[in-house]
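Worked problem 6 (solution included).
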Amino acid sequence: MSDDKVPTGKGLLQGLGVTLRSMTKRSVTQEYPHVRPELPPRSRGVIALLEENCTSCMLCARECPDWCIYIDSHKETIPARTEGGRERTRNVLDRFAIDYALCMYCGICIEVCPFDALFWSPEFEYAEGDIVEMTHERGRLSEWMRTVPAPPADVPNADPAKELGGGGVERRRRATTDDDGSPA
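Solution. The predicted structure is:
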């Protein structure tokens, strides 16, 4: 037998010492519901929709690995601009919804959108009591556009960012009209 016997209760005293030291230190717990956390800039929270940029091309829905984006649209005929011209058709968005109960927030839909209709919003407080309520329609998705931060200004002579109101319908209107306001 060895003479290295541990005195009875030494482990208990060491454990109590650790407990007492940690009780005297300041807590680092954030009281989330009462104090909102400081999020890093450009945080990913929820996907926002800029409805006037959406052309119902369905790329986002096709590329989504979870199939959580639902889009319904119909075709509308636009009369010819000039006499003898042909009529054109365009897709009109009827429904755009994202089921956040299925979404894995990968961002593929945002990256694949050629018309910049989808953006990351830092909004993260959209929990629901019922899983059926996790499918958010285009009205609610459009409301989150006001929380999308402006992109960093890295190109001095670039067009104004779409998030700041410089894109979308107004930019297309400028591109299809002459300087005097008549159609191009």
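Discussion: The helical segments are 10-24, 59-63, 108-112, 138-143, 169-175.
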